[in-house]
Amino acid sequence: QVQLVESGGGLVQAGGSLRLSCAASERTFSTYILGWFRQAPGKEREFVAGITWSGGSTSYADSVKGRFTISRDNAKNTAYLQMNSLKPEDTAVYYCAIDRRRIGVIDRRYYQYDYWGQGTQVTVSS
To answer: CA of 17: how far to CAs of 11, 43, 105, in Å?
Structure first.
């Protein structure tokens, strides 16, 4: 079973930046699609960004496109989410997750992902 651990969250002012990391416990991580999701209080978990195993294809929610960048370093079993120009509405718990069933198509539905990290809190103050 793959274990995922997120880190890098914190409190930042609007307009600031944060980089989240997602570290996996197994090298098989490198063969899976990875997604970043977030969940704000009282809201449903939503897709933020996804990346294929090779990093050759990425997908972003419209709300973060142009501000966030997803990447991965399979040699380090780690994925990243660089978040720039943060807004108060980006405040949420951020999760990384892997999809073991698909190869080239990034699914935006959270329930299609198999393994999840514990989440890291991101708070953006105005």
So the answer is: 10, 23, 28
